[in-house]
């Protein structure tokens, strides 16, 4: 059931807060939630990572990365980024801190990498660099999706470190025009990738040593992975991906398994054919959950903070078209309930802050960081 | 998402159909569905079983059982029923045919049985009898819930035969005033029961031989079981039950397990306390799915006909307060999607007909049998 934003928007002025922040209250089953605009004026913000003292590292798809202070003030663009081809869905995407960031100051970010300077032939790449004095140092590209492709769609781009910090997972897409490639192992299209943080390939990846297979592949048959997180109790990596028209999916991607795209889907085929190839096939995995019609699922996070005790272990997922926050109650790998909350804005990503509050990025040219905390 | 009944109600006159039948179209994700009123004027119909030649055996909570012809015409009340105490939620409830009905003409039905003639101290009982010439013969009460209780609430009453026809399952309730009894094994309150069709107790029931335990108990900690069915592929028995305010549940009740009531629930405690005792506890089972807020879940059936191929294996569940048909897509014991269809009438039960169409009973004094078939 849709929960709408209630109470008229009120203006709240916080001491030391220069921008006027609007706060609204969202009524949900277990909590009344205050929705505050923490920062705005970000150009399609895509990824966010929490630094110390309430500061945040934020990417803008338009090709900028900035530190946003705890009061919402935005720093100057960080210098030293590689060439990024900003085109349609492509640009600067996700950002994660090294598991040992306090000591090494290393960050990882994903972006659309051109084949050569200015080229519109691109693919998703991941770079690492040391962040110091608002500048990236020792930049190194640790992964480039093969092959590069014309067009600016379905880059995937979301990343997450494994629970032990040993592996970096990267979700990719089918680039829009290369659907069938998602079913073959000789490319990275429509794949989920597992690498070491230096870009090298773990020897126990499922297709290492298989003739012609790309060794970075963890799982395949994905359409366009947009959100990823690690489940708190199990340490398992989960991912959400866009379906075609319907069939947005939550998956629990296991090593070597086939998640079906474009052979099976709960969405409609292009042109509106119903069912088409069907929902399921031997040797392919059903999703754990799907949204049909599509919410255009974007980010996902397991809630594991202390601000919303009733939501502990729940999946929070966001929608672009759905302009929503979906809450999935879990029992292990089963969804046992969904609550759908209407936010009235396209949402790109959701992360849980160190303070246990929920942070959302809105997908607009004047994009915002929203903070969700318990209302008094 | 709620699908509303669309298209203005149209009157359809079928040859040989004396009552005027209204047909509406329900638009759903995978099918446009014609909703026809097959029969009406039934006083709170509760259970339905399919006889040969399209005839149906239907119970009315008010204490009548009738054969309804394939054209919707209602026969006279069947004679020979035992004394039934019709009071609040109590009365004549479910009806099932013997697995060998073609040869033995035996039926099983559940009802509120008074302690003595005219008494308001009642509990749920199951009787068997041979149906011949519109009369019950050789009537035998094969189970009586212990203890009997004042008040007319939470009788449970739904029944299902196991896939092999060897066992009869009966879902019971906490009688409203005996919540705590659902956690102790010395009574049938808030229990799911497994017996042989002659009323005797299977030796491998989980609490047979346990001092003081009622041997008919299969599982416990249920609030008020209202729907039951057997999953086609697995042969497993599933059940739905009412929560308090919220927390209507789908369960997959396993032998000897505790389904939590009244210790854990996703509903609210009486008086409106939130969370209260919490959702889960060691040694108690979470539901496979819950509706919160409550739809006041009533019947449930696995779809296994050939009229709606995209729904194969799905759970269909109905709501009294929700006035809805909920469709749960399944992957084994996981719900992977819900579609909610608004029917605008309180629905008591859902069964799949031998023709693959879906039959619903509406819970009104002028209750109806609705038939759902694919629209042209
Ligand atoms: Ca899939
Ligand atoms: Ca499969
Ligand atoms: Ca329960
Ligand atoms: Ca438990």
Automatic annotation (TrEMBL), chains A, B:
This is Oxidoreductase. InterPro entries: 6-blade_b-propeller_TolB-like, Glc/Sorbosone_DH, Quinoprot_gluc/sorb_DH_b-prop. The keyword Signal applies. Keywords: Signal. Gene3D superfamilies: TolB, C-terminal domain. The lineage of its organism: Bacteria, Pseudomonadati, Pseudomonadota, Gammaproteobacteria, Alteromonadales. It comes from the Bacteria. Residues 1-23 form the signal peptide.
């Amino acid at each position: 059931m849709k929960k709408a934003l209630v109470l008229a928007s009120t203006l709240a002025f916080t001491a030391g807060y220069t921008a006027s922040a609007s706060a609204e209250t969202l009524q949900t089953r277990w909590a009344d939630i205050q929705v505050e605009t923490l920062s705005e004026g970000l150009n399609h913000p895509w990824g966010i990572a929490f630094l110390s003292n309430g500061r945040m590292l934020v990417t803008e798809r338009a090709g900028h990365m900035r530190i946003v202070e705890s009061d919402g003030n935005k720093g100057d663009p960080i210098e030293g980024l590689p060439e990024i081809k900003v085109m349609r869905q492509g640009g600067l995407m996700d950002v994660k801190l090294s598991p040992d960031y306090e000591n090494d100051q290393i960050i990882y970010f994903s972006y659309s990498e051109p084949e050569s300077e200015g080229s519109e032939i691109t693919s998703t790449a991941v770079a690492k660099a040391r962040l110091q004095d608002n500048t990236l140092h020792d930049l190194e590209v640790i992964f480039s999706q093969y092959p590069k492709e014309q067009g600016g769609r379905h880059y995937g781009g979301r990343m997450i470190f494994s629970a032990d910090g040993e592996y970096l997972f990267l979700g990719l897409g089918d680039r829009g025009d290369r659907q069938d490639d998602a079913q073959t192992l000789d490319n990275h299209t429509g794949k989920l990738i597992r690498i070491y943080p230096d870009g090298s390939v773990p020897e126990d990846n499922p297709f290492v040593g298989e003739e012609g297979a790309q060794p970075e592949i963890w799982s395949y048959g994905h359409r366009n992975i947009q959100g990823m997180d690690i489940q708190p109790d199990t340490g398992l990596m989960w991912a959400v991906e866009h379906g075609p028209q319907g069939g947005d999916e939550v998956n629990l991607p296991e090593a070597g398994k086939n998640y079906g795209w474009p052979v099976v889907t709960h969405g409609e085929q292009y042109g509106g054919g119903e069912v088409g190839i069907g929902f399921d096939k031997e040797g392919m995995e059903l999703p754990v959950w799907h949204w049909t019609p599509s919410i255009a699922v974007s980010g996902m996070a397991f809630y594991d903070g202390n601000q919303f005790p009733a939501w502990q272990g729940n999946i929070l997922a966001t929608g672009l078209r759905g302009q929503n926050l979906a809450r999935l109650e879990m029992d292990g790998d089963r969804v046992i309930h969904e609550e759908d909350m209407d936010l009235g804005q396209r949402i790109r990503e959701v992360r849980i802050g160190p303070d246990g509050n929920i942070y959302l990025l809105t997908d607009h040219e004047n994009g915002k960081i929203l903070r969700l905390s318990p209302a008094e």
